[in-house]
Amino acid sequence: MGNLLTINGGKPLEGRVTVRGAKNLVPKAMVASLLGSKPSVLRNVPEIRDVEIVTGLLSVHGVKVTKDPKTGDLGLDPAATKSATSSEIDAHAGDSRIPILFCGPLMHSIGEAFIPDLGGCKIGDRPIDFHLTVLRSFGAVVEKRPGGIHISAPKGLTGAKLELPYPSVGATEQVLLTAVKAEGITELKGAAVEPEIHDLIHILQKMGAIITVQTDRTIRIEGVDQLSGFNHRAIPDRNESASWASAALVTQGDIYVEGAMQRDLTAFLNTYRKIGGEFEVDDDGIRFWHAGGRLKPLVLETNVHPGFMTDWQQPLVVALTQADGVSIVHETVYEERFGFTDALVRMGASIQLHRECLGSVPCRFGQRNFLHSAVISGPTELRGADFDIPDLRGGFSHLIAALAAQGTSRATGIEIINRGYEKFMDKLIGLGADVELSSAGR
Ligand code: EPZ
């Protein structure tokens, strides 16, 4: 990809896109293959940067990763798993948070793991304290090393009674990937129950794991000595589906999202209808369109599943800048996820940020001086502007704002989008967007 995207706005996006496996599941499924005594096959794998990063990390640890040229299905063979040097790991870790999830599987297979300092979208502090606490509870020894941490299990790993202070997706995955082969029973209270968590549980169960999910966010895992391989089709990316749905609304367009699944988008679809968006569900996907007329403002609070997901917030905020009245968005999952609004305000949006919890329930950030609530007044006309892509979802929101805006916008840092949106440029052009990618920097 060049690093400058020129966007001529004002055209509705219309047509069809296909969404494949979830960015927030596929890399974790690839890591799970390390736990198996046999090769695994992962299907419905999108061509995104995060998959390349994990392919590199698995390869330096001796896992044979093959890709079917026609289907993109991945073969994952852990037979020759070995330790890797910190520089080898560093060379592949890139800007991802996935390396932290290698801990459990590597300790089970080679007794140790080195985790480089993590990257990921700049949407908050994103500490790993929950991860380290649960790993220590299994008996792991955590040592700080230059450029990262070294983790080992000199006495093996034993099941434990755990409770998360907040239903963290990553920490829940950490427990699942460690407990399945730990000695004895693990009980995790306060667990995350996102669709991606359930899909990971299905993969581990296919490998031979014994996992029970109770309705009160308690997950019970009975450790087993050996796991086999899996053959699994990854669930579709609900975040990409919701992003294209917002793009249809913002550009007054009409987009059929093949692969979108109602089951994983319930909270999003309710909100979409309340704003005035239309959708139609069929067995293969969901059609999203702007019904004409004015969009309606609303009060929105992000939350863990089954609430309104934080990754849906940024693209939908762009639609709220076009709603007829005042909307309020209270971000309760990440403390710094409104930085992207600066560029929207420069494009003509009216958005004020507040430190108070402007929602129905006070959240963790209430008393901590974070601008985590937004008041959006609309409708305001959007005008083209130049911007640098800040993070994955913030970047997508900037691009759909530019596609709706009058005039021309120029975007740099476009590579970030490739981390989570497959064939992004092809899809935009297929939907009739007037865009041009060039390598010339500004
Ligand atoms: C996953 O991140 C997703 N990323 C995120 O999607 C998503 O926003 C998030 O879950 C919430 O659903 C991937 O799956 C790769 P968390 P994760 O642990 O696991 C705090 C996108 O755009 N926390 O559930 O890193 C943390 O700071 C990305 O696709 C601790 O305090 O999220 C945050 O405030 C962005 N200590 C909250 O919990 C910890 O040890 C939720 O984080 C761990 C987390």
Automatic annotation (TrEMBL):
Pathway where this protein functions:
Cell wall biogenesis; peptidoglycan biosynthesis
2-(S-cysteinyl)pyruvic acid O-phosphothioketal: modified positions: C121
Q: Which residues form the active site?
A: C121 (proton donor)
Q: Which InterPro entries match?
A: Enolpyruvate_Tfrase_dom (IPR001986), Enolpyruvate_Tfrase_sf (IPR036968), MurA_subfamily (IPR050068), RNA3'P_cycl/enolpyr_Trfase_a/b (IPR013792), UDP_GlcNAc_COvinyl_MurA (IPR005750)
As its record notes, the protein acts as a catalyst of: phosphoenolpyruvate + UDP-N-acetyl-alpha-D-glucosamine = UDP-N-acetyl-3-O-(1-carboxyvinyl)-alpha-D-glucosamine + phosphate
According to its UniProt record, the EC number is: 2.5.1.7
The keyword Transcription regulation belongs to this UniProt entry's keyword annotation? no
| Keywords recorded for this protein, A-Z | Cell cycle, Cell division, Cell shape, Cell wall biogenesis/degradation, Cytoplasm, Peptidoglycan synthesis, Pyruvate, Transferase
Enumerate the spans annotated as Enolpyruvate transferase domain: 8-428
Q: Which residues are listed for UDP-N-acetyl-alpha-D-glucosamine binding in this entry? A: R97, D311, V333
What is the enzyme's class at the highest EC level? transferase
Q: Which sites bind phosphoenolpyruvate?
A: K23, N24
Q: Name one Pfam family in it.
A: EPSP_synthase
GO MF terms listed in the record are: UDP-N-acetylglucosamine 1-carboxyvinyltransferase activity
Any idea where this protein resides? Cytoplasm
Q: Which HAMAP family match?
A: MurA
**Its family?**
Belongs to the EPSP synthase family. MurA subfamily.
**Function, as annotated:** Cell wall formation. Adds enolpyruvyl to UDP-N-acetylglucosamine.
The name this protein carries in UniProt is UDP-N-acetylglucosamine 1-carboxyvinyltransferase
Q: What is the lineage of its organism?
A: Bacteria, Bacillati, Actinomycetota, Actinomycetes, Micrococcales
From the UniProt record, report the name of the gene that encodes this protein.
murA
